[in-house]
Amino acid sequence: MKRLELKQDWFVRYEELHRGPEHASEVMRRTEGWLGTQVPCDIHMPLIEAGIIPEPLEGLNSFACEWTQLKSWWFKTSFRLDREFMTYDTVELSLESLDAEADVFLNGRHLGHHRSAFYPFTRNVREALAEGDNSLWVRVTSGVEHFSDGDTAFLRNNLIDCEAYGRGDPRRTFVRKPQYGFGWDWGPKVPTCGIMGEVTLTGYRELAIRGVRAYTKKADVRAELRVEVELESFVPLATTEATITVEVLDGDRVVLFQEEEVCVRSGVHFLDLEGVVEGAKRWWPNGMGAPHLYEIRVAAKTERGRVAFPAFRHGIRTVLLLQDKAGEDERLFAIEINGVRAFCKGANWIPADSIHARVSDGKYATLIGEAREAQFNMLRVWGGGLYERDAFYRACDENGIMVWQDFMFACGLFPDHLAWFRKEAEAEMDYQTRRLRNHPSLVLWCGDNEDHWAIVQWTAEGRKPPFFGGAMLYNELAPRAMRRNCPDIPYWNGSPYGGAQPNDHRMGDVHHWHEGMMSPDMEKRIAPEAYDRLDAKFVSEYGYVGPCRRSSIEAYHGGSPLDRNGEIWKYHNNFFEKETVAAGVNKHYIDAEGLSIDEYLHYAGVCQGLMYGYSLESFRYKERCSGGLFWMYNDCWGEVGWSIIDYYATRKIAYYYVKRAFDPVKLIIRREGGVARVVGINETPAPIRIEAEAGYVSFDGRQRETRPVTIELPAHSRGEVLTLPLGEHDDLQGMLAVVPREASPHSHGVSPQEHGIAPATLRTEVFRKLRVSAAELKISSFEVRGGEASFTVSSDTYAHAVHFGLDDRTRLSDEYFDLLPGERRQVTVYGVDAAFSCDALRPTSISNSHS
Question: Is the pLDDT of residue 582 over 50?
């Protein structure tokens, strides 16, 4: 087996759209107008580098790039093959992702046409290759040019598209490529086009290992592991003697070895091997335990050589989708890992760049690492983006981030009445379920995003869609692919889905929009208490918009001045924002009119944090709710939008509110049934005892009517631990709180700070109405060591949204938190040098700057 990667020394040029594959010989003779590049390559990348187009994601530049969709794009490269390569029985050419309509030529021979970015173009090209010099050409277009108004007639009024600033294209659902590139409420219209993945030549003798599926039959100390191997013999008329080996390694130590002598039949041959891993270390989601990974190696050896499947890391874990009865007409919707029900904490993931081919492995590592730091345990890969590159899933495996994976169908009717479209979708589903099945992070496949729900909505609104375009995809083709390739991973038909109709709160998952951020009633959009009334089993979408930090806004303004009424600001503002940000600032803090840019960004960021933090706590408080995923985690460009980490991988203010809401050990207090009810959560594998004080604390610190309480939190638990009388205290001058003083797992005393156990406080009124005096914040115990600065901050009086005035890109363990009178909070600043001093800290709180 020999593999040649064709990454470097590519060239690209454009031609008019009508110059199709029949013009290949003419284009091949052109010697000028070629731009050097490498793959993966979106056509925008070399154009930007050559100065032909400006950066599309800055300012209003995307409009200057629209012409690229109206061209055909021709890629070429050349490579040399030695005599040895020509001795292989089979040589396969694979182009991992061609976006979207493509024709491939090798040494002047047309190899075929391809019309999907979601599975590879693969051919046996042994007879088309030559010893020495070879040439490879690829023609690609954006794909929509083949479809007319007549083709898309059935989509009229039956497509969720955002038409602001020319975004959207009704032809998008006909093309198997990332849908978001045509524009969404949160992203510009920058349609992707190009060679988006690896290009390889692989030579085989006699055998190839076409697939390996590893899964856990029993996740215990003696874990039972099954490995299924799919072989292909290229010897058509005879059997082949082969030795198949499977190794499971924990670091350098082999913990399972299986070897079998096999008589391999011609063509496809399957082999199943089982074994026991003694003393197994299981893979757990972040916060529930360690995400331990083993390495699995599979190889086949014959007299003529050895072939190996790419080694991969795998976790020992089981996964179930629990749908037990939860009442007369209700059911749970919960993920169970290794026999333990998990609360899914996280958000929706979209592609990390409108030009996704330029997302580096480093950016994936940063974003997933930041999700882990924010105490996520799940990301939902939304169905209007793409099946992410391997680097994304590897990072999720390593960081304990469960993946809810949508198939790539979102917000519309899809033409599954057409045989060619069904064939494309089936090939895509087969490839992607096989590709991703060994990742322990992947715990749920889902058929679509909002397509089931849209049918119900459109019918109720009188739009009368002619048929459910997509039903065969989600209800037939997808479950068959799942059963065939990864039956151990749960499947769900759509999102939202379940119950009498999609978005039923009694079962399945819900998208909470119409009574939340997209409600015509502004009060419902900006009141966090509205989420206390949401009784859903699993919230897989909802959101609240907020701006980026100033440095990021300046970056996407591209040197233009910041003006909240300017065209750039409006263009980079979410379509559904509709003055919600200012209304939230007005309600909770201060009149937004007349604020400076910096003041506006500050209060708007805190409002987004308030909404996310409170709502996520509300979901965790409800014991029948098993997940809270907000829309959305990240961004594909700079905007005022839903995310908590922006396009530049800079944390927004709301990031810290979400992180606290997702504390693995947490107390949450809500007013319910005439009392203050406290729910305790312990997601860790160890029981915890908390010694605390509970009662009323005034903001000025002078009144403290509390009593000592002991709270026992069993491992992997959630439930009521305490109730407090509401009393007749002045809610404008203080609040009910449960304040941890000491926490002890297994009787080993550690501080609440080490477990991240923050006080639980009862919110009774908007901050603007509270009688909060100015707080004097004190810094103590400052120390710099190993690239980190640590210090303690405290206040004698209540302080709200405590922050430290550091650079936007500075990462802290916590910020924008509240301090109760007399409370001390330890904070770490990451990535500092030895010269970083206490003088760099400017501790401030809203209670100090606005009172």
Answer: yes
